[in-house]
Write a structure and sequence with these properties.
The protein is mainly beta and 360 residues long. It has 4 helices and 20 strands. The protein is globular.
Amino acid sequence: MTDTLQINNLPTLTWNWLKINSTPYAYNDHIAGNGEPHMSELAKGVLYNANASAESDAYYHLETGCGKNLDAQFFGSHVQPAMLTVQKGVRVKQPMFINFELADNSDTAAWYIIKAEEGAEATVIMFFESAKNAGGSQVLRTICDAGKDAKIHLIKVQLLGKSFTQIDDIGVICGENGCVELTHIILGGKETYTGAAATLSSYKSSFISNTAYLCHNAQKLDMNYIARHIAKKTMCNMSVKGTLQDEAQKTYRASIDFKNGCSGAEGQEMEETLLLSARALNKSIPLILCDEEDVAGEHGATIGKLSEDVLFYMQSRGIAKTDAEKIMARAKIASVASLIKDDDVTKKINAYLDEAFSHE
């Protein structure tokens, strides 16, 4: 059976003709497995539960980026949540990997809960790849729960085949002085729908996100980032940068919501979009909602083609316009990829970009 859901909803509605309040997602219920991810060896002090259904109920009301309409894919379904728990005070030095090598024509769903108890710290890398010409669908939900004085660095790298559709839903909750950092590289697939919602309900909790993308040919990317500031002196910093080529489409929603009582909170959001084609379609809506006086919110966007000054500088040094555009497009991705402290992952990102730009 196929149904259509409205996902990636804005926290407050704007004009319907903009077609940015949400996005339709047509899904079927013929999910076959979780994609059989490969997990690296766990460090001492990290627990793994392959079926954490009992623990998942605690997150039923937690907001996620793609929204509550996606809940039916997880709660009450046959998709079993898996849970990684970093125990109190444990600081894992090496990244933990969850790698998905998705097969052609596969339709899978997976759900992960990553919990860092008080004073714990860990980095989790989720890597998605398939054959270059492969297609299929993946629905994924990731919950990050950072306890008091804990930190989770979630890294996602999407290098799926050119006919894949991925729905990547993220929810974040932090304890006092807890922090979740999200680093997201999106290069592959035909259509990608992703969202991250951070509920900052504890004193000095924080959310940091850095996203980079390259959309070319007829790729579609739809993003929805939300930071809810509820407690005092909370902080968010959300950055998205990328490039649109050919007939690619990108929608970016970024919302900072200052709730009554979050005095001393700070929020920042920044977007950089390089447009390399008049046929590419870009939609952006930075949004700040405010119900508290003593807060600091800032947002900004740079959207457009390379400036004449940059082109002149490049060409005066013997760099052609097309090569200059490639250099700037790669630089945006490289600035985010530099946050990934794993040589094998960055090599795969660079190899994917080499392949993508070789056909330009």
